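Q: what does this look like with nicotinamide-adenine-dinucleotide bound?
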Amino acid sequence: ASSATYRGVSILSSNTDRKTVLVTGGAGFVGSHTADALLTRGDSVVIIDEVNDYYDTSLKNENLEYLRATHGKDSFTFVKGDICDEALLEKIFSEHKIDYVCHLAARAGVRPSIEDPQVYVHSNIRGTTALLSAAAKHKVKNFVYASSSSVYGGSKSTYFSEDEAVDMPVSPYAATKKACELLAHTYSHLYNLPCTGLRFFTVFGERGRPDMAPFKFVDRISRGEGMQQFGDGSSSRDYTYISDIVDGVVRSIDRPYKYQVFNIGKGSGTTLKDFISIVEKYTGKKANKTILPDQPGDVPRTCASTEKATALLGYKAVVPFDEGIRQLVLWYNKKNGIANCHAVESVGHAFRSMRK
Ligand code: NAD
């Protein structure tokens, strides 16, 4: 294995071969960061993404542009299309000789899934089934896919552990993510397709999704606009910085298991109140909040047990929440031509050397 690094982090510990990886949803947030890491270490990457308008498509096009600018215009193949299109998948798998699948395409978002569940069933259940079928037919070496902490529903556990029975989702989104795990198990059993599901815990960072709280808070607070706080601020989430998530994904691609599910989270929670005050600290602005009741489908607290991922993947989140928000604010300021106020460029990379 060589010693390429991604954002200061060694990502080649066990990569001894050059993989051909189909990254679904590669124009999205997690997908584009993952493609970035895979290209950095020399894998061959094919992206399929329909570039839907769940949020501003120009952001997804910017993600693809970022990859082209960083790695070269022809450094990867981009196919614009729906993962439910079986004929298209057949063409991609056979033409590119796909040997690994990193399936990150999905309709994401809890609240919109309550409004329009059919769209979620289409992309998340039909799409995952189509990909599993193609992967099994083409005998891929590993099928890694995004699940979600939302499968834990209203679990009362202190740390959500993979051993918990999770069959009580509380939103259509969570139900479709659980369905992905069930389908993956089925294909692993029937066709010996190695399948690993990664339950991500709220991901944030540069080029993050504009529908999610970290981006929204930084945006609204920076602009001095009013923002909504759901609940009294005591709800707590396990927020995971994007480079930790990518580290978990890449480790998982490199370590095929017959069938596994892992939590990929930070392993500690941050309350909404603390979250907002950290954003205030780095933007140098006070939040102008309207407090609203908790929303249906939201879960009061999420916190990952990451013991299993540590034991089997060697995964450990290393980026402190505060540092992740600082990075997000620096990126946001650069994109919007805002002078850095309290988020300073030159400090705080020490955490990177902590990753083994
Ligand atoms: P994202 O919306 O930024 O990216 C998903 C991409 O998939 C989008 O670019 C979209 O155009 C594409 N897509 C959706 N349906 C498609 C279809 N039918 N065919 C082709 N492309 C399609 O979301 P993200 O935050 O990057 O999420 C990546 C994965 O991680 C998703 O599976 C999501 O459910 C999961 N996840 C994300 C988080 C998080 O906090 N971001 C948390 C838990 C799980």
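Residues 230 and 292 are 5 Å apart (CA to CA). The pocket of nicotinamide-adenine-dinucleotide is lined by residues 25, 27-31, 48-52, 54, 60, 82-84, 104-108, 123, 127, 146, 148, 200, 202-203, 209 (CB under 6 Å).
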